[in-house]
Amino acid sequence: MFRQILPPSLITDLRGTTDQAREIARKKQGAQTQRLQPISAFDVDQKPFQDYAELPALKDAVARLLSPNHTHGNIHSKSSALGVLLEPAEMPYCTIWHRDWRDNVRGLRLADWNARLLDLNFFNQVNCALYEDSSTWVVPGSHLRRDTSAEARRFPDRPIAEPNLEGKNSEARERLCLEYCQSLPGAVRLLLDAGDFALYRNSLWHLGNYVPYRKRATLHEIIETPEYAAWREVIHKDLQARSAAGLEWENPNKMAA
């Protein structure tokens, strides 16, 4: 967590640009859309995002924590491009609990994921808040290990079950989403203030929980490395072949058994 690393002037510029992005996202993808990505593909001022990418204090922090080969703010990259996470306009909702790639990519070979679980060249992700943000929930430390028996019992099957929000009003949806967030042992909110930069392993258990009354504009991206980019290219080709063959989810619980 790099607290208040964005200067106020940059927050001002980014808020103005992401206000435009929010309207574009809703016109293009509907009132409930949660993100606009890649931001470079849309008709908004790109300079604030470039300033974010080139911010010396942030570049130095990422290089010191990881390495000079780890880069953020990859505006023009197709596979790691910077986006903006937004609040829904109308109704609360949440994503599923998941560990990226393993639980939200159909057909991934779990052996590929397991082999890179502890490799710092892979699976690094960013949430950089422009407003106070408590939307992300995580299970701290889960990126360093396989699932516990309690986690396996909570989500025994793949794909992972989501909360049933069908036909519920706003308040009921909000409560159901909160209970879903709290249902995974060890889950806590990731609390960000404006200007905070959170760098975390997306191989940990995490989700997003959103309500329309809490304004959100959080920059979101992966931390790129040459190794991660090359792996994703190979994986995408493998996924296409496996999808054509009709292969479905591999279940880590059944494999462990």
Mean pLDDT: 94
The main pleated sheet reads as: 5 strands, antiparallel
Overall morphology: globular
Strand proportion: 15-25%
Count every beta strand, where a strand is a DSSP E run of 2 or more residues. 9
Strand order of the largest sheet: 1-2-9-4-7
Look at the helices and sheets and give the structural class: alpha+beta
Distance between the termini: 36 Å
Low-confidence stretches: none
Number of helices: 8
**Series of H and E elements:** HEHHEEHEEHHEEEEHH
Please render the helix and strand layout as text.
Elements: H1 8-29, E1 35-36, H2 47-54, H3 56-65, E2 83-86, E3 93-94, H4 110-115, E4 124-129, E5 133-138, H5 149-154, H6 170-182, E6 188-192, E7 197-201, E8 206-210, E9 217-222, H7 226-244, H8 252-256
Antiparallel strand pairs: 1-2, 2-9, 3-8, 4-7, 4-9, 5-6, 5-8
Helix pairs in contact: 1-2
What are its keywords?
257 residues, alpha+beta, Jelly Rolls, five-stranded antiparallel β-sheet, four-stranded antiparallel β-sheet, 16% strand
Question: What can you see in these coordinates?
Answer:
The structure is a single chain. The chain has one domain (8-256): Sandwich (Jelly Rolls). Helices cover 35% and strands 16% of the residues. The chain contains 8 helices and 9 strands. Helix 1 (8-29) packs across helix 2. The longest helix has 22 residues, at 8-29.
Concise structural overview:
This protein is α+β, with helices and mostly antiparallel strands.
